[in-house]
Amino acid sequence: MIGFEGAVLRNGAFDVRADLTVEGPGICAVVGPSGSGKSTLLLALAGFLPVVQGRLSVDGRDITHVASARRPVSVLFQDHNLFAHLSVTDNVSLGLRPDLRLSSDQAAQVRDALHRTGLDGLQGRKPAALSGGQQQRVALARALLRDRPVLLLDEAFGALGPGLRREMLLLVQSVAIERNLTVLMVTHEPEDARTIADHVMFVGEGQAHPPLTVTEFFAEPPPAVAAYLGL
Ligand SMILES: Nc1ncnc2c1ncn2[C@@H]1O[C@H](COP(=O)(O)OP(=O)(O)OP(=O)(O)O)[C@@H](O)[C@H]1O
After folding, report:
1. How far, in Å, from the CA of 117 to the mean position of ligand 1?
2. ipTM value of the model?
3. How many structural domains is the chain composed of?
4. Which domain holds residue 117?
5. Atom 13 of ligand 1 has which residue's CA nearest to it?
6. pTM attached to this predicted model
7. For ligand 1, atom 17, which residue shows the shortest CA distance?
8. Does some domain include residue 78?
9. Among 192, 195, 219, 198, which Cα is nearest to 31's?
10. What DSSP character marks residue 198?
11. Ligand 1 centroid to residue 42 C-alpha, Å
12. Are 38 and 85 in contact (CB under 8 A)?
């Protein structure tokens, strides 16, 4: 469960306000117009942007002032997720050990994560020798190995074609269920919410609204949501 209590999140001159709870485990899609503050919400939760008012919590634990590296959160962006000079295996291993000194048990966990994300045979390649979809699989494998209870996806699969995008979404869904993750997923495709989400949060003009169930969101959208959906 993720809590935003009277929170004001700052991105330069732009503020996002959020006073809501995201139930977990489960998947909550985050939608809204461009520039409304969706990325700001995720970046503040990950500890990369300041909370200037209120508090943030994960499973009841206050994380407002916890350093980003120590938050119970993994993040996956659309790009810039991988280190160009490191192999696939090393990029994934960073999820467990920043110094890459893995025990044999940890090396086995890395192999398992690579297998689950369909990366067998690509272990020794550098990111430049991978397709966009393969690169996102590597980033996802690393995020999964971090084994944090909250996974934040910011348009992570936006650059992928429809088939691969769906495949990645279903992979996230199966891992989220298996590991009891709470996933917040920014997407410009409301259909993504129908594919894997339980809830949908609308962010409009710097205000994050409490999540609705997917059924409520599409069946009885509030006026701002209806305008966004073009209904
Ligand atoms: N580094 C920055 N400094 C100042 N303002 C910024 C910065 N980054 C973003 N903003 C502004 O903050 C607002 C919210 O941006 P944010 O990226 O959170 O929106 P978004 O909903 O994720 O948009 P998109 O869907 O286009 O990615 C925008 O008005 C944007 O111009």
Report:
1. 31
2. 0.92
3. 2
4. 84-146
5. 35
6. 0.91
7. 39
8. no
9. 192
10. S
11. 11
12. no
Secondary structure element (H or E) that encloses residue 203, with its range: strand 199-204
Sequential pLDDT tens for the chain (231 residues): 999 999 999 999 999 999 999 999 999 999 999 999 999 999 999 999 999 999 999 999 999 999 998 999 999 888 778 999 999 999 999 989 889 999 999 999 999 999 988 899 999 999 999 988 899 899 999 988 888 999 999 998 888 888 888 888 998 998 899 889 999 999 999 889 999 999 999 999 999 999 999 999 999 888 888 898 888
Q: Are strands 26-31 and 199-204 parallel, antiparallel or unpaired?
A: parallel
**Do both 104 and 191 map to the same domain?**
no
The answer to the question of residue 223 being in a domain is yes
Question: What is the DSSP secondary-structure string of 128-170?
Answer: GGS-HHHHHHHHHHHHHHHT-SEEEEESTTTTS-HHHHHHHHH
* Ligand 1, CB within 6 Å, residue ranges: 11-14, 32, 34-40
190 with 224, same domain: the answer is yes
What's the token pair of residue 80? Answer: 């810039």
Q: What are phi and psi of 127, to 5 degrees?
A: -50, -35
- Indicate which atom in ligand 1 lies nearest the CA of residue 41: 18
Do 113 and 74 form a contact (C-beta atoms < 8 A)? no
How far apart are alpha carbons 213 and 209 in whole angstroms? Answer: 12
The token duo for 154 is 């910011």
Q: Which two tokens stand for residue 99?
A: 């110094």
